[in-house]
Design a protein that fits this description.
This protein has 331 residues and is an alpha+beta fold. 27% of the residues lie in helices and 18% in strands.
Length: 331
């Protein structure tokens, strides 16, 4: 499932290429025909991400809410204008597979985290960003817009850009009041609000719960955007046993986790990858950006020695998701 940094990157890509443009909206798959009819011909006025959910604002206060879930992803095609801070070399945006921040110097992940293959939905895409289509012989599409491929739930088509949505958990047309209701149920997102009040809200909720902290961090009503990778890494970095009840985690530790999440989220948005190891430079940094095995402390390292103490990293299930942790460093 895409974590918060991916959804923020996708929202920024939409703002670059669709905000201010009138769009044709269709449902090639046929499962969103009524919603598409409501949105068709409207202008995209704003796009926002809150945690793992994205909200596209159309004129007359009509919104499209999208939650990608486990298998959802967006494909882009056409003359895509790239945000220099989140430049994506080509193709699919969903999960954590956008390419790096500098097209000329992007360090591409070899396991799909930063490539055209989606982590959760390993489907090849024919979509190419504009920089990649110029002068390419044998391009997979020759006219714009390209024909939809596969089960496209909704297509947004502007004059020079198209976005296709596949496999979302949620895709619905809502109004202003419903947007407010959905967001009110979500925990704070530090990319939208990194104020002391947001930190206090997160801390207060965690500190009154008997629920294990490893479950609380995945609860989107407690904090927005954290998924399986960031959960494991944040808890290791804080030295916290994932089974510790929230109310027993010291106040200063809970606040440190919030502040760390704020920092790691920003790194994820700017690089497109979940870099959770600190102080890497030169070859070590390039290696870590290219290989997931070299940029995480515990995630996907079950049975391997802890990078700090040498104890074998444990793997168990918590909240129906895999949990990785060190029983010594996280006592």
């Amino acid at each position: 499932m895409p974590e918060g940094h991916s959804v923020h990157r996708i929202a920024r890509q939409f703002r670059q290429n669709f905000q201010g443009h009138r769009v044709r909206v269709t449902s090639p798959q046929g499962r969103f025909v009524d919603g598409a009819a409501i949105l068709d011909g409207r202008t995209v006025t704003d796009v926002k991400a809150v945690g793992k959910q994205m909200f596209i604002d159309f004129d007359d206060s009509v919104w499209l809410r999208v939650h990608l879930g486990m298998y959802g992803a967006w494909d882009f095609a056409g003359e895509i204008t790239q945000d220099a801070t989140i430049a994506s070399a080509n193709g699919r945006m969903g999960h954590t597979n956008q390419r790096g921040t500098d097209l000329a110097a992007a360090i591409l992940d070899d396991a799909g985290e930063n490539s055209l293959s989606s982590i959760g939905a390993p489907r090849k895409t024919r979509v190419r960003m504009s920089e990649q289509t110029k002068g390419l012989a044998g391009s997979e599409w020759e006219t714009f817009p390209p024909e939809p491929v596969g089960a496209v739930r909704v297509r947004l088509l502007a004059e020079h850009a198209v976005a296709d949505l596949r496999g979302p958990t949620a895709c619905e047309v809502i109004d202003d009041s419903r947007v407010g209701e959905v967001i009110a149920k979500l925990g704070p997102d530090p990319l939208l609000d990194d104020s002391d009040e947001a930190e206090d809200r997160f801390t207060a909720v965690v500190r009154r719960k008997p629920t294990p902290i490893g479950l609380l961090l995945m609860d989107q009503s407690v904090v927005s955007g954290i998924g399986n990778v960031y959960r494991a890494e944040l808890l290791f970095r804080a030295g916290v046993n994932p089974h510790t009840p929230g109310k027993l985690v010291p106040d200063e530790t809970v606040r440190a986790i919030w502040q760390d999440w704020s920092r790691l989220l920003r790194i994820g948005v700017e690089t497109g990858q979940m870099m959770t190891m600190d102080n890497l430079t030169g070859d070590d940094y390039r290696k870590a950006m290219a290989h997931r095995d070299d940029r995480h402390w515990v995630y996907k390292r079950e049975g391997l020695p802890c990078r700090v103490c040498g104890t074998h990293i444990l793997l168990e299930e918590m909240g129906a998701r895999k949990l990785y942790w060190c029983p010594v460093c996280q006592r």
